[in-house]
Amino acid sequence: MTNHIALFEPLMPANTGNIARTCAGTNTELHLIEPLGFSTDDKHMKRAGLDYWDKVKITYHKNLREFIDSIPDLNNLYIVSKFAERAYTEVDYTDTTKDHYFLFGKETTGLPEQFMRRYPEKCVRIPQNDHNIRALNLSNSAAIVIYEALRQQQFPALETQHTYEHDKLK
């Protein structure tokens, strides 16, 4: 079982770099759906995750259809949107026999409305107040959702306590 984070046409290299770092630290695969709003060689991208790029599996998809077609079981696709009715915490991610895919939209416009209407039952949201902010930060949102899935899965292959010799509590 593998968890996957997919970014639809990401625009900001810092967000993608931060998400790549989260993926590297959680054994999560990253999917980037083109076109990207930056080059993966961009200096901002490197600053956000340079020393982690070799530790994350990244798959590039030419478009949203190609990404959807790559998922073996759409039952485990979760589309994160502030317009969803169901909270991300209301979903059971404990099935460790299948991969779980979390799809996030573009920072400025989200996912295409027609696509969202096609898969309303797959949509989940992170609760937020009604102060009319456009959305939570993309990299924060990805971290929130992936850690909920990992918590439900009992943090597979992750250390739940990490200590260094000089940091041990006495």
From TrEMBL:
Keyword list (alphabetical) reads: Cytoplasm, Methyltransferase, S-adenosyl-L-methionine, Transferase, tRNA processing
Q: Does the keyword NADP apply?
A: no
Reaction(s) catalyzed by this protein?
A: 5-carboxymethylaminomethyluridine(34) in tRNA(Leu) + S-adenosyl-L-methionine = 5-carboxymethylaminomethyl-2'-O-methyluridine(34) in tRNA(Leu) + S-adenosyl-L-homocysteine + H(+); cytidine(34) in tRNA + S-adenosyl-L-methionine = 2'-O-methylcytidine(34) in tRNA + S-adenosyl-L-homocysteine + H(+)
- What's its top-level EC category? transferase
Tell me the superkingdom of the source: Bacteria
User: Which InterPro entries would you find in this protein's record?
Assistant: Alpha/beta_knot_MTases, SpoU_MeTrfase, TrmL, tRNA_m1G_MTases_N
E.C. number(s) listed in UniProt: 2.1.1.207
Q: Where in the cell is it found?
A: Cytoplasm
From the UniProt record, which GO molecular function terms apply? identical protein binding; RNA binding; tRNA (5-carboxymethylaminomethyluridine(34)-2'-O)-methyltransferase activity; tRNA (cytidine(34)-2'-O)-methyltransferase activity
The answer to keyword S-adenosyl-L-methionine applying to this record is: yes
> Where's the tRNA/rRNA methyltransferase SpoU type domain?
4-147
Annotated Gene Ontology cellular components are: cytoplasm
Q: An example of a Gene Ontology BP annotation on this entry? A: wobble position ribose methylation
Q: Where does S-adenosyl-L-methionine bind?
A: V80, G105, I126
For this protein, the record's NCBIfam families field holds: tRNA_yibK_trmL
Spell out the PANTHER family in the cross-references.
Answer: TRNA (CYTIDINE(34)-2'-O)-METHYLTRANSFERASE
Member of which family?
Belongs to the class IV-like SAM-binding methyltransferase superfamily. RNA methyltransferase TrmH family. TrmL subfamily.
Name the UniProt record assigns to this protein? Putative tRNA (cytidine(34)-2'-O)-methyltransferase
Q: Which organism is it from?
A: Ligilactobacillus saerimneri 30a
